[in-house]
Amino acid sequence: MNTQAYTPLALFIDGQWLSEHRATESVLDPASGTELGRLPHATDQDLENALCSAERAYKHWRNSSPMLRSDVLRKFATLIREQAPAIALDISRDQGKPLAEALGEVRFAAEHAEWHAEECRRLYGRIIPARDTRVRQSVMLEPVGVCAAFTPWNFPFSQALRKVCAALGAGCTLILKGPEDTPSAIMAIARLLQEAGLPDGCLNLLWGEPARISRALISDPRVSKVSFTGSVSVGKQIAALAGLHMKRCTMELGGHAPVLVFADADIDAAADALAANKLRNAGQVCVSPSRFYVQRAAHERFLERFVARIAQARVGNGLQENVDMGPLCHGRRVLAMEELVADARSLGAQIACGGERIGQTGNFFAPTVIHDAPQHIRLLREEPFGPLAVVAAFDDFNQAIELANALPYGLASYVFTASSAQAQHASRSLAAGMVSINHFGLALPETPFGGIKDSGYGSEGGSETFAGYLNTKFVTHFENLPL
To answer: How far apart are CA 197 and CA 168, in angstroms?
Structure first.
């Protein structure tokens, strides 16, 4: 048995860890419901101190050498790899995902830190040839200023890390409000960056009631940029508040990813791969495949294979060996799953497997496949964000695209086909920020990650990763010299 203690929880402001004399809330183990620790909430004075600290640090960090920023991020990546097992253990404890998945999240996040370390060296401006030889025209890229970031509980380490690395690499400072359900990963990020040599004040951590903190930070004139990952409904509120103050935003919101499986695809291989991906992090993934549209000629074969793979998944405590899926992160998700299944059942849909809570302890819900459902069930309209999948048949290409594009979401979509022409046609026709064909190739450090429509705007990762953290300044200089 592992005896590692759960990480102590605190605020992090101007390089100091603060926890005493503040209201606290419980952090619970989703597998057992037991308390892991107490998380302190920021006071009004903590908010003011974080803003002052970030503003003060920005005056120096904005003028730091890109080589220095790169060096800090590179050391950060090295420390992540060295301490990945301990970080992953705490993530599995407070988030619930299997330990192997948590370890994969942490190690893969180190690659993102390295990518940002390399790319921040290359934030070049440019020279624009002038119409007059006496004029010099240049474009400069400058950090936007103090940033506020709000990050989710489903991938607490990697989601926060991408925002932190992009902001710091661009020369910005950051106030981070992480997820109260899963705080250990955020604590690790701050601790390792401090160890890597990040100056005090460049990163500050706050915890507390989300609406209160978001209002305070977004409305403050010292904050120039807002980055949010989370639900569509909350994202729209954040964006509206930021819009009132003309704050730049990056919004990575929800998705309800369609999957198009054409009859010419390798049906068995597609069903196996999609089942494994559906159960990743118990389906609590914004790009999780959730609406499965299968060409009628292959529908029965796909459904049989897919259901068999889903039904055999081993569900249990993420710290146990050979577990395929852990608990949902909190009880609210279990209730949401029960409501979606009940709605589908009441409208005549068939439950091929799962459909119910597992046990009375912890937040366990059986992996579920629904089929023969009318189009108006909630599951075909609302993002499940859990281990629910609905399988339906389509007849031709146009119908498949119409079904896939019917919702206001536009984050990820997936296509399985042996036809190159069909794949290219689908990639152009799908209304999504990301299209993955015959595999799952999203969220790599070198590729952009982001959506369209209600799924948000702006990208994280790839060469686009710094765009939201930089201002473009044009400088034109007339030199009154003789021709």
So the answer is: 12
